[in-house]
Amino acid sequence: MRFTFPLLFALCASMAAPSGAVSLSEDSLTRMATADVVLLGEVHDNPAHHVTQADLVRRLQPAALVFEMLTDAQASAITPDIRGNAGAVAQAVNWAESGWPDFAMYHPIFLAAPGAAIHGAAVPRDAARAAMQQGLAQAFGDGADRFGLTVPLDDREQAQREALQAEAHCDALPDNLLPGMVDIQRLRDARLAQVALAAFEQTGGPVVIITGNGHARADWGVPHYLRQAAPGITLFALGQSEGARLLPGAFDAVIDAPIVARPDPCEAFRN
Fold it and tell me: Could you report the average pLDDT of every consecutive run of 10 residues in the chain (271 residues)?
């Protein structure tokens, strides 16, 4: 789907102040509205971030939605007859056992573009373990070369990624596990890219990816792997911060929302 100028102008005007979000610049709105793939980052338990995602999806009306939170099998279980029923969708994908925040925050995104195909790109736990035990390229399977997974990271980026993994896990992981955690992150990024690219090739786009900020970042995340596999694809990566905190990585635009009150995630490790 591509926009004529009058429709693009109307879309950008309607997107100028998404609910719960700081206004995006006119340039950002134009680039988002004309991109083949749009990544909408989030902090998973921040309701304002999901309000913004639903608002932008409603305005973009993508041909496909790709969710980090769903496997392919779970996405296939969301049939048109249950899509409007939050309880039925949550039950169909066993959301209560998934570990993700309350599905009520995510359901409006599914409703925002009722004609969009739903795709899941979650990496199952056994595949994640395989990345640590067998290697990244073998865990990914066919297409590892295309997405650049056979090429090791340079030493600087590897060290930076390991430091972020250590911080994300409250500095509680043994150092020898950190390279494997980096491989799992790369595996998840590449799988999101693979599914999004397949959705784009099937539908002609645009495709919207709903994912955490770490996957949405334009330098290391999903956009990097999309550019590896399809250099001509146009992308827009939106990050969503909290309380004006700086997000690690590069984004095409960043908007802010209030900080959510939450328990200290490192308390369990200290205890």
Answer: 41 44 79 97 97 96 98 97 98 96 97 98 90 91 95 96 94 94 96 98 98 97 97 98 94 96 84 67
46, 242 Cβ separation under 8 angstroms: yes
- List the one residue out of 134, 168, 160 whose CA is nearest residue 266: 168
Residue type at position 4: T
CATH architecture, domain 17-257: 3-Layer(aba) Sandwich (3.40)
At 33, the amino acid letter reads: A
pTM: 0.91
**CB of 161 closer than 8 Å to CB of 136:** no
Q: What pLDDT is recorded for position 245?
A: 93
Question: What are the beta bridge partners of residue 207?
Answer: 37, 64
Q: Report the C-alpha gap between 245 and 255 in whole angstroms.
A: 10
> Where do runs of H (alpha helix) occur along 61-206?
72-76, 86-92, 103-112, 125-133, 136-140, 155-168, 178-203
